[in-house]
Amino acid sequence: MIYQSEQLTIRRLDGDIAELNFDLQGDSVNKFNQAVVSSLTAGLDALEAESGIKGLLVTSGKSVFFVGADITEFTPLFKASKGEIKPFTKPQNDNFNRIAALPYPSAVAINGIAVGGGLEICLACDFRVMSTAARIGLPETKLGILPGWGGTTRLPRLIGVDEAVTWIATGADQRPDAALKAGAVDAVASPEDLRDITLATLQHAIDGGLDYEGRRARKHGPLPLNDTEAMMTFFTIKAMVGQQAGKNYPAPMKVIDVIEAARNMSLEEALDVEADGFADLATTPVATALVGVFLADQLLGKKAKGWEKKADKKVEQAAVLGAGIMGGGIAYQSAYKGVPIKMKDIAQEGLDLGLSEANKLLSKRVARGRMTPEKMGDVLNSIDPTLSYTGFDAVDIVVEAVVENEKVKGIVLAEVEKEITEDTILASNTSTISITRLAENLQRPENFCGMHFFNPVHAMPLVEVIRGEKTSDAAVARTVAYANTMGKKAVVVKDCPGFLVNRVLFPYFGGFNMLLRDGADFTAVDKVMERWGWPMGPAYLLDVVGIDTGVHAAEVMAAGFPDRMQPGFKSATEVMFENKRYGQKNGKGYYEYVPDKKGKPQKTLNEEVYGLFGDSAGERREFDKQEIIDRMMLPMAIELARCLEEGIVETAAEADLAMLYGVGFPPFRGGIFRWMDTVGMAAIAEASEKYAHLGKAYELTETMRKMLANGETYY
């Protein structure tokens, strides 16, 4: 053994080849934390002192190669200054440079995921062999930063500027065939042949059959572009990436700036420019926000896995009540993820609609080459449409997805409870109705909870699992486990009107209706909020949700929280409803919608809509952009704070993710609590005081006032 630690080993193989094997003890994956970086430095010291070595084989003892840096170490790092952050990348760059400069060739066997720093160490090696089961990529821009261990330097010199920028700017994982075609890897092998082929490649280089020194020169020198080629290349790339990334995500454009600035430099000079770029981005609020989202997502996943471990049985057969678009979406998602499902409705037309929805979604996957027709047939066959309860005594969970009417749901739930076994979990897909009240007519309320999907089911990642007063841990555990199986992000919340997401969303709509009452143009409000980062403004969002659904939900919320959600005036949204303008579902709402050639509804403005508002909208006038933002966001932020304080949601991180995954809150702001931390509680309090005349929805909670006094933050 040449070197051994809890992070890695270096041992001598036959033929005087050294094997560097990463196997981080106490963790299921390899990641570059400070301990691994220090251990690699010590290991390379030992390797360089070893005589007679002819080649280096780099491997992983895990099922994945490397998941990159330990992101948990970024949080304290990003609070430092640029000058303090820049040296962070140097120790690892020194390690990788030492691997790249060894007096003999190196080859890496990429047996699984190799992303971020995991790919960067591969780039430092002379040869790369990739398993057919592996994926590689540089996802750092998704965290608001750029690759800091040579990714912006070595990758463009290896595969060309255009391809490298595409890889880094999108942050997408690359499949073996794409990586081989681009030249990022030298060979692709089956998992069982990977080690042998990598060793054979290394031996071929040792024997002089592969010019590893020529490869090194290419990665250490300037980019092979003259001034004219460089000008055209970078001009084109900047235009393309700038349009796709937008102004709120600076990392992709910084990547191009770094590559361009270092194009004529040596490797060492280029790495210094890269370190500057890394430090520049690490000090931005966007990086803090996106790293926070990443860590919050890990927390959410860990909690969901914890619930799954508590589940008394695996969901092997599911059922959904109510077909239609929502029921069909739930059936599709369940069947697609491998859980057969019964889809019951009271009418054949409903079943036809549900099957049509599932068929449409599956056909799209086939058309895009993501599924074979045979697989599509298997998935469709695992959806069992039925008009009766036959076979319901064999299901593990039933999701009720009938019309959003408390009386109807109560009848259906009591009815189906008689058809299922005593340990079957019953869940309601209600978006606003109290789970505790719905449980009143049930014989086994402990087996009942909410399972609120967001529309469209296949696209929206969030599922709220709602615990009623009598809901058992067993019911929550099995429901979360089912959500996990369906590929969803489950947030467990307590019962209250609107639960978490809708309870917080409707004060936002309330702020919108008050703006219209006071003379704002709904199109102007939409533009301001979209530029602020929302995927769609409030008027457009109401059209997509369905104005009839919105009005009904608003009534539930007003009854639940009359002190701050009862508008006290007829809103423009109610006027839309009275005029049967329900949004996209019937082609008319705040906007009007005409399908394009692909059937996608295209938004247009009909000026006649302004004539319908009457007294619900004041005389039109322009509003300052910041006033629109404050009046829209304050009620939402304060209501989310109430939810956290009341224990509706357990942590600020879960609350922030729920808003990101449920309604599309801007990721680059990190969530509502992260946004409040960024602007500061003092600014929130100042805006609250300014708009206090608008009602209790704009009034800080007592806890928020204490946070202001004590200088506290949510994170």
UniProtKB/TrEMBL annotation:
Record's keyword terms, sorted: Fatty acid metabolism, Isomerase, Lipid degradation, Lipid metabolism, Lyase, Multifunctional enzyme, NAD, Oxidoreductase
NCBIfam families reported for this sequence: FadB, PRK11730.1
Gene3D superfamilies assigned to the protein according to its UniProt record, in alphabetical order: 1.10.1040.50, 2-enoyl-CoA Hydratase, Chain A, domain 1, NAD(P)-binding Rossmann-like Domain
CDD domains: crotonase-like (cd06558)
Protein's pathway: Lipid metabolism; fatty acid beta-oxidation
Reactions this protein catalyses: a (3S)-3-hydroxyacyl-CoA + NAD(+) = a 3-oxoacyl-CoA + NADH + H(+)
GO-annotated biological processes: fatty acid beta-oxidation
Chain ranges of the 3-hydroxyacyl-CoA dehydrogenase NAD binding domain: 318-496
Protein family membership: In the central section; belongs to the 3-hydroxyacyl-CoA dehydrogenase family.
Listed EC numbers: 4.2.1.17
Pfam families found in the cross-reference section: 3HCDH (PF00725), 3HCDH_N (PF02737), ECH_1 (PF00378)
Any one GO MF annotation of this record: long-chain (3S)-3-hydroxyacyl-CoA dehydrogenase (NAD+) activity
All residue ranges annotated as the 3-hydroxyacyl-CoA dehydrogenase C-terminal domain in the record: 498-593, 628-712
A Gene Ontology cellular-component term: fatty acid beta-oxidation multienzyme complex
Keyword Oxidoreductase applies: yes
Protein name, as recorded: enoyl-CoA hydratase
